[in-house]
Amino acid sequence: MFVYSVKRAYPTYYVKVFVTGELKSEIKTLLDTMKTEQWVNPGWEVLENQFQDIPKTRKYLHNALRLFIDDSHYAGYDFGYVTDVDFLMFRHKPTLKQHYVVLMARCKEPYVAARGPYRKPRRKKINKGGWIRKYKRVIIGRLFFEIPTFLDKTRAQRQAYLRRAIDDKHDSWDTHKPGSYREYDEVTFNRILKESGMRTPRKPTKTLAGCGIGNLYRDIHLGDFKFSKRAHSKRLVGRIKEETISEYIKMRSEPHWNKILEVCKERSAIREAMRRLNKHVHDRTGR
Questions:
Q1: pLDDT at 130
Q2: DSSP output for 63-92
Q3: Helix (H, G, I), strand (E, B) or coil at 220
Q4: Is 116 within 8 Å of 97 (Cβ atoms)?
Q5: Which of 17, 22, 27 has its CA nearest to residue 266?
């Protein structure tokens, strides 16, 4: 779903999806069909069995692994964009690259990302007393950056945090096991930036330029539709732009998209997210 939407929007962008395990046979068959029948332009791949040196007991770290992708995967490119795989992306004017290059110049750092809005963990099991100041500072997981400047500046810190993950140990700053909550990737990202000597946004949902990340509601985050409360939040899904809704309606009618859905909707979470998304679209447009 992610690959199809990105390549549909930006045919010349190269897309890599990193998977920690092996894909199911039906997904592999679907991807092979997409490639052989050229449902989208060439220039994409799905890499299985990545980060095999991370112990399985550290599965809660997987959201942070996007920060530890080996630099070799970025070779030959000027800019990189790392994001969640459950986004549906659509083409807009300015394009994704044009939008972020301008914003990066305003931020005066080799990256663009926004401060996360959360001030306490969302998991009930977390000891709120351990939620001290340095764990409140989070950066959301969507990152646009300049290659190789950003990679050079953060290399030592990224390697250090990767070693901590591989060691399967709780360090002194892990006394209440912050790695056991979902936002660990966002906390880790903030630490890497700070320890690399770069400035980080101070205001929730804002970038260093003092504005929102911009593209967030130009795309559709299926994660917002996985949970009933978020799917019914006008503050969240109500911000999805009208042109994005229109583009989604166009894509929804395409035969290739529907073939993808037939396979992907076998997973109940995706099936429920798509049901809520389509209901949201119907409520807004009647379609």
A1: 52
A2: GGGGGG--GGGGTT-SEEEE--TTEE----
A3: strand
A4: no
A5: 27
